[in-house]
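User: Can you predict the 3D structure of Shikimate dehydrogenase substrate binding N-terminal domain-containing protein? Sequence below.
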Amino acid sequence: MSRTSKASSRKATGVDAAAQIAALFETQRQDEAEETAKAAEESEKPAPDEPSPERPAPEVSPENPALARPVAEPSPERPAPEVSPEKPVSDEPSPESVWVPELLPERQATDEPSPESVWVPELLPERQATDEPSPEPVWAPEPVPVQTAPPAILPGKPVVSQRPRLAVLGSPIGHSKSPDLHRAAYEVLGLDWEYGREEVVEAALPAYLDGLGEEWRGLSLTMPLKKAVIPLLTDIDRVAAETGAANTVLFDGEEVRGFNTDVGGIVRALSAAGLERVRYVHILGGGATAASALVAAAELGAERVDLHVRDLEKSLSLEPPAHGLGLRIRIRSFLQADRSLDIPELVISTLPGDVSIPVLYTDSTRRRAVLLDVAYEPWPTPLARAWQSVGGTVVSGLGMLVHQALLQVRVFVSGDPLEPLPDEEAVLRAMLAVAGVDAAGAPLEAAADTPGTSLDGAAVDAAAASLDGVGVDAVGTLPEEAAAGA
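Assistant: Sure. Here are the predicted structure tokens for Shikimate dehydrogenase substrate binding N-terminal domain-containing protein:
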């Protein structure tokens, strides 16, 4: 069965992840809803000593004032039947005293009233007949009960047994820290979601997506799948369109939506390190992450970008989007010497962590330019060591990883990378503690004992302290404004 043909089945029988999601935003309103329902119930019930405005109060037979069953008013076209004086008054109301509507021609009248045509409300067993008119003949709708469900389930939504599933895909994938980061986030949010990792090569991606069941909520993508997934999506966000790459997939009913959170991860990690504006940027590498680095450079205000790549021909595809972003771009081979006297404020390396240094930078450049090395395994990379050897500023790829993962959690929870999470600062602290870094990607002295479990202690305290005094909010957003980020 194809992914498209499964969409309707997902909608009808799949995991109602939206129910768990929305509950995070509705938990604080549940008590108010319960009080409102109770108030509505009380207001709809008539007072015991007042007749209902929709139905006249029943009369009590003078022979037996204890009778609670109402005697109907006479019809304007038909006189009310008289009570036979020969019949003794008993504890039960005389059937003749109840107004009987005109029977259909084919029915024969009997001594007993037709059960279909006479509605007689039953008294509740615990109520005793009194001299006052019984309120039972007055029908009032029952209030809808407010479901007291667990915090992760939205009232009124079906509860299903399957856990929503997510995973990170790529090749190689064994080193990925995404499962630990996401599990920590969902634990803080109280969501019982499963997050794993899968080795998937580019050629196998279409078949893999087609084989996923209805329980899947979304995917995180790493190399080499970020560009390969674009033709398989039904919708992409603005950043994915600008970069031509998506690192996040959301299964949303019949839609398979793509997002790029790498750009926001870069911007937020650099902001946490104190770099909020740049003019001139070097980017090493020409793949999908390099495309995200281009967009991030534009959002940081860059005017010029030098792109250093292995394959000049393959990287020419980055020129049009760079021009569309208003950037002056120069693409150079690693083998070409850089004789420019201009020192960039920022160098972003998108290369694997185990490669040798492709570009020789002077000591002056390494001291003055901030290095963001998106690689984090092994750490430090040869390039990061070269920067650290002269006292230069290095932002670890773990900082970017945490911030882009936080935006992915936003997508999986609300469907919008710009929609903050409930208690987002606590979520970020938990993720930083698991990664063992502060908000700028600098290593912490202590890390969480066990990823995905309790996250109290020194690691969380250190992560919290790293958020203070850097001039950004809890997700590293520039003070002037979030919407331009992811």
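DSSP finds 15 helices and twelve strands in the chain. The first strand starts at residue 165 and ends at 170.
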